[in-house]
Amino acid sequence: xxxxxxxxxxxxxxxxxxxxxxxxxxxxxxxxxxxxxxxxxxxxxxxxxxxxxxxxxxxxxxxxxxxxxxxxxxxxxxxxxxxxxxx
Length: 87
Fold this sequence. Notes:
Elements: H1 4-29, H2 31-34, H3 46-58, H4 63-66, H5 71-82
Helix pairs in contact: 3-5
């Protein structure tokens, strides 16, 4: 009806929404495991998030399990490690 380009955008948008719901559930189940405290003054652009995701995927200590996780969860783990909350 709208063409293949729109359908591609719609599919990506729906996938993003679904990932958001899954992330919400992960945070509800284990909030402290995925909590991070990024300082407000730290600005992150798309390239920064991509670099963080890449670093997680290339970490040899995580190779056994990290490649089986969805990207949003890998990124959340990276944010937790880069910006831990003080206890």
